Amino acid sequence: MAPKTTSRQAIIEAAAQLIRTHGVKGTSMAQLVELSGTSAGAVYHHFSGKQEIVVEVARETIALPMRALGEYRHHPASPAELASYAMAALAVAPEL
Q1: How far is CA 4 from the centre of its chain?
Q2: Do 31 and 15 meet the contact criterion of CB atoms below 8 Å apart?
């Protein structure tokens, strides 16, 4: 059984999808509410506004490469390797 997605996580995942499709400027809070299956109240319960949601999407997007960086302390990756890893991770799992 898959873990239950919280409303906060549903909002972040919906925002990531919308941003990939429409960009930050083209993403509206109404679209976010609809795609996340939550309510405006839920969105504003978890986030102060669109900017905070965008920052959280960015944090989650770079989390995977940052974890990988931590795992390779004894053999640090070059900036080019990290950028390549980040792009590959986004291609495989763009919702992360």
Answers
A1: 17
A2: no
Show the tokens assigned to 95. 């919702």
Task: Express each pLDDT in 67-89 by its tens digit.
Answer: 766 666 666 667 777 777 767 76
| 95 within 8 A of 16, measured Cβ to Cβ | yes
- How many residues are present in the chain? 96
Instruction: Look up the pTM and report it.
Output: 0.68
Question: 48: which DSSP letter?
Answer: S
- Total Cβ atoms within 10 A of residue 18: 21
* Contacts with 67 (C-beta within 8 Å, 6 or more apart), sequence order: none
H/E stretch holding 50 reads helix 50-71
pLDDT in tens, 6-27: 999 999 999 999 998 999 999 9
Residue with tokens 């995977």: 64
